[in-house]
Amino acid sequence: MTIWVTHVLNGLSFGALLFLLSSGFTLAFGLMKIINIAHGSFYMLGAYVSVSIMLATGNFAVAIGAGAFTVLIFAIVLEEVLLRRYHLRDLPQILLTMGVAFIVSRVCLIIWGGDPLVMRTPSWLSGPLIFGDFVFPKYRIFLIVAAAVVGLLLWLVLERSRIGAYVRACVDDEEMAAAMKINTRALFTGMFGFSGLLAGLGGAIGAPYIGAYPGLDFNILPLALVVVIVGGLGSLAGAAVGSVFVGIIDSLGKALFPELSYFTIFVPMIVILAIRPTGLLGRE
Amino acid sequence: MRVVRSVLLATALIGMLVSARVGAAAETVKVGLPVPLTGFVAESARDMVDGFKLYLSESGNKLGGMNVDLKVEDTEANPQNALTKMRKLVENDKVNLVVGYLLAFEGYAVRDYVHNNMVPLFLPVVAADDLTQRKRSPYIVRMIWTSSQPNHPFGKYAYEKLGYRRIATVAQDYAFGWENVGGFQKTFEEAGGQIVEKIWVPLDAADYSAFVTRIPRNVDAVYALLVGSHIPGVLRTYRDYGLKDKIPLIAGNITTDEDVLRSMGDEALGVVTSHTYAASLTRPQNVAFVNAFKNAFKRDPSYYAEAMYTAAMWLDRGIAKAGGASDALKLIDAVKSTDLQDAPRGPLKLDAYNNPIETVYIRRVVKKPDGKGMENQVIDKIDNVSQFWTYSPEEFLKQPVYSRDFPPLKK
Fold first, then answer.
1. A114 to B44: CB separation less than 8 angstroms, yes or no
2. Do A258 and B40 touch (CB under 8 A)?
3. Domain of A152: which CATH number?
4. Contact predicate B34/B86, CB 8 Å
């Protein structure tokens, strides 16, 4: 019995990481219709920076903050300098962000070398939590809690704050929002930066468990795509539901059908696409 | 649904990356060196290039007295690219020989091309068993070991010296993992032990918890065989789920290689492995090699570096003996008849199937005496290990190549 609890918790903690990864992606898409191929690079950059800062300072909170903040700045610059020229043109955006992704991966290889790096965790988060038969890593519990807190904050900002109201207005009708004197330009840049911040935060919080290594960017990007396809593109609640759904199905799938472990991530996507092409919570 | 289609299209586009470079020509020996400089084993590939260059810098950029024109290519850890780069080196650069590649599937991907085009290919790292067994070619010479080679003595050792009877394996799900586990399983079970479960970790796995949770708890030890970034990931997960203190971990060769120990903590301590090299070997040739490597690159050499250094040494002697590198088979015969007594890792000679016979070391990960980092301490050694172990080649080649399901689990 405890083994199944462990499998579900494994899936939930993986889902927590998926949520941090995919929430930024889906927000940028929901507002600006950008399919950001460099989102995996954002994640990787956050992971590398936080691992380095952790090594240099030994301070976990500073390391996480530095990882997230670096990517925030990077995303804002990217939007200001390049992406805004191609507003609402999806193919140029895809190719552009893919080019950025290639550049980031080369630059990371030059800066950090090819060593797989894993962040050391502070002692209060290291090792397993043990209740009799039940053994579970403390860090994964932290991960679940952190993702839940981030999700709650995101929901509060989007649903309860003025900025959130602007964002929702812009999603519904950009021209009308602009006519109402909402500064859509600044909103786009800010939200894209925010989407980078979330990806960087995911990379940083995921660093003690997935680490940072060359190729991480394109390893992790398909996971974000799967989650948003399952959950529904552009929907924050969809990202949350999709993450938990994909995380748990993946974990249980690998436990029950080890032969199929290559497909456990993609099977739910295919089933959902067949039944509901817009995803679980996507809008037509 | 246009948007979903765009996303799928974008997903399909990922992985497309084409690059091209143009080389120069000169009256020299042209050497192609294709390795996966990017991707999940980038660090090991860098060690390969550095090891080869270290030898060249010591020999004044000469092999067999000829100036070396070295062409390094990036295969991006992708079999299709491995073949593309081979074609490019042979057809555009007109290299005399190719020495390189890292991953089993790279070796298999270029095998037919090399065989049909009569290109001398030296494999200082690729361990895919069949390249010197059922799919051997007179044009392919391996300078390392078959994946199963260091595992044959290790399976017996685990039963007899370590006293294990029941073992579960956690290994990477591709040819290299299957052949390592297969070799270990064969001799471990022939000695009297039993492999109770084989857990396969896909190369694209990001989360290892499902695999670690599946490890049965009633075993004497767990045997792991991992590569690249999966090594610290799985070993940390093994520790974080509280298994490290309960079930001893033993592992295949590269799992505790020096290049991954650099970035790991106590999760790797105590792991016992079998391999043909350890940077801590006290042979004078190795001490000199390690010092030279550390001086040049400010880090411990891994076996990848040693393998390429030794390959360069072997080619140096072979080209000198053959009087050049223009005739593929003459060069290969010269290399085959050259026994290396003074390679850093130990004495080496090739068997009739173009694969080395060499010493296998049993090693344990310990803290370095100066407390800075970890190293592989040699605790035992087995001399003259061939790819066929104690079996006759004819008998051995009758069994299928080790795979996911061979040898099967005993019920």
1. yes
2. no
3. 1.10.3470
4. yes
Q: Please give the C-alpha separations between residue B293 and each of B44, B143, B247, B297, B298, in angstroms, as whole numbers.
A: 14, 20, 36, 6, 7
Q: Which domain holds residue A205?
A: 2-275
Q: Exposure of B293 by Cβ count < 10 A (0-12 exposed, 13-18 middle, 19+ buried)?
A: buried
Contacts of B8 (CB under 8 A, 6+ apart): none
ipTM: 0.83
Distance between CA A106 and CA A128 in Å, rounded? 36
- A60 token code pair: 């976990």
Tell whether A73 is covered by a domain.
yes
In a domain, A104, yes or no: yes
Contacts of B76 in chain A (CB under 8 A): none
Helix, strand, coil in percent for chain B, rounding step 5: 40, 20, 40
What pTM did the predictor assign?
Answer: 0.86
Residue B228 to residue B270: CA distance in whole angstroms:
19
For an interface test with B, give the residue of A209, A276, A278, A284 to mutate (most B CBs within 10 A): A209
Taking the alpha carbons of B242, B248, B254, B256 in that order, is the dihedral positive or negative?
Answer: positive
- Report the sign of the C-alpha dihedral through residues A46, A51, A55, A58, in that order: positive
CB count within 10 Å of CB B400 equals 12
The number of distinct structural domains making up chain A is: 1
The pLDDT profile of chain A, 284 residues, written as one tens digit per residue, is 788 899 999 999 999 999 999 999 999 998 888 999 999 999 999 999 999 999 999 999 999 999 999 999 999 999 999 999 998 888 999 999 999 999 999 999 889 988 888 888 888 998 888 888 888 999 999 999 999 999 999 999 999 999 999 988 888 888 898 898 889 899 999 999 999 999 999 999 999 988 898 889 998 999 899 999 999 888 889 999 999 999 998 889 888 888 787 788 888 888 888 998 888 887 76
Cα–Cα distance for residue pair B334/B320, rounded to 1 Å: 9
Give the chain B residue nearest A140 (alpha carbons). Answer: B240
Q: Which amino acid is at B295?
A: N
Run of H or E including A137: strand A134-137
Structure tokens at B264: 């790991």
- Return the structure tokens found at A10: 């494994």
Task: Choose the mutation target among B8, B38, B75, B229 for the interface with A, i.e. most A CBs under 10 Å.
Answer: B229
Selected residues 202-231 of chain B with any CB under 8 Å from a CB in chain A? 202, 204-207, 209-211, 213-214, 228-229, 231
A282 in a structural domain: no
Look at B207 and A261 and tell me if their CB atoms are within 8 Å.
Answer: no
How many CB atoms sit inside 10 A of residue B6's CB? 17
Closest CA to B31 of B90, B115, B108: B90
Torsion of CA B138, B139, B144, B146, to 10 degrees: -50
Nearest residue to A119 (alpha-carbon basis) of A12, A212, A232, A243: A212
The answer to whether residue B41 neighbours chain A at the CB level (below 8 Å) is yes
CA dihedral B392, B395, B401, B405 (to 10 degrees): -120
Q: Is residue A284 part of a domain?
A: no
| CA B116 to centroid of chain Cα atoms | 25
Interior angle at CA B43, CA B38 and CA B45, nearest 5:
70
Cβ contacts of residue A243 below 8 Å, gap of 6+?
A15, A16, A18, A19, A22, A147, A227, A231
